[in-house]
Design brief:
- The complex is a heterodimer.
- Chain A is of the alpha+beta class.
- In chain A, 29% of the residues lie in helices and 31% in strands.
- In chain A, β3 (93-102) and β4 (106-115) form a beta hairpin.
- The two termini of chain A are 31 Å apart.
- The relative contact order of chain A is 0.20.
- Chain B is α+β, with helices and mostly antiparallel strands.
- The chains are: A alpha+beta, B alpha+beta.
């Protein structure tokens, strides 16, 4: 388990889903991405997929929540995601954020999301601003 | 091949307002339950003048200014061959509900791999408020030749 009280956990795990068709309809309305591959099972099947595809940007929004729920939305300084695979309606997304390094201001995490069905669907990095008390502690000389 | 003379093309910045109702809907869509994104009192307690937008909501604002589909039309690239390969956001200052952001997009790179079989389009997006840069986005699109292009994540 991750220690939620630590300013800079070594690892954060989150699970989202299963992703429903309703989630994709809501995301399409909110984002303006109405591509039928995300909404119409027939179009998805014609393209060779059993179910509509989860918007890559929805996966990225969930990646932002992995860090934002822990550090606060405003702490996120940088988020970079590569869409390395495809998640489908019905899939559950398993996110892992692993601390790669930190300094007195920011913590840098490696991100990965996987589904049970296909493996990795997203990989990337995130940088978060550390809370001021942590920064203060780190700058106090150790005696 | 996409003509490299398009590198450097930049849209004229237009103002885009952050609509509270749309932010609320976006939160619903991504399962965001933190009221700092819609409750002004909660936002004020945390020192913000208005509710905070979720980080990747910037993509929706960017599309309001100029969708990637429109830029692809300019490059004469069919949407069906395009995958959203990578997305980055850098956040400099919080974006708040009610803000009016001046948004512009620029094609910053066009390159290929595997002797042109895979072509990449890099688009930077600048988000400014009152002349000050608040965030930047970098979108990388992958264009695959038809013979090798089973449809996948097609861009907005």
């Amino acid at each position: 388990m991750t220690d939620a009280a630590a300013p800079c956990p070594a690892r954060i795990e989150r699970t989202f889903g299963p992703i429903r068709a309703l989630d994709l309809a809501l995301y399409a309305a909110a984002s303006g991405d109405h591509n039928p591959l995300h909404l119409d099972p027939a179009v998805a099947q014609a393209a060779g997929f059993e179910q509509p595809l989860v918007h890559g940007m929805l996966s990225m929004a969930l990646a932002a929540r992995v860090l934002g729920d822990h550090f606060g939305t405003q702490a996120l300084a940088d988020l970079n995601t590569r869409f390395t695979g495809v998640a489908l309606v019905g899939d559950t997304l398993f996110f892992i954020a692993e601390l790669s390094r930190y300094d007195d201001q920011q913590a840098h995490y490696r991100l990965q999301a996987r589904t049970q069905r296909q493996g990795e669907v997203l990989a990337g990095q995130a940088s978060v601003m550390l809370p001021t008390p942590a920064r203060g502690r780190l700058t106090v000389p150790v005696r | 091949m996409i003509d490299r003379r398009h590198i450097g093309f930049q849209t004229t910045a237009t103002p885009v307002q952050v609509d509270p109702w749309r932010v609320r809907l976006f939160c619903q869509a991504i399962g965001e339950t933190n009221p700092v994104h819609w409750d002004a009192a909660v936002a004020a307690e945390q020192g913000h003048a208005a509710p905070l937008v979720p980080p990747t909501f910037l993509k929706a604002l960017e599309s309001d200014h100029c969708s990637s589909a429109l830029l692809l039309q300019r490059l004469n690239v069919p949407m069906q061959q395009v995958l959203h390969a990578e997305q980055r956001f850098s956040f400099h200052h919080p974006v708040l509900v009610g803000d009016v952001l001046d948004i512009s997009r620029q094609i910053t790179d066009l390159y290929d791999k595997r002797n042109g079989a895979l072509q990449f389009i890099v688009i930077n997006t600048h988000f400014c408020r009152a002349g000050k840069r608040v965030a930047e986005g970098v979108q990388t699109l992958l264009v695959r030749l038809p013979a090798q292009a089973p449809a996948a994540e097609v861009t907005a």
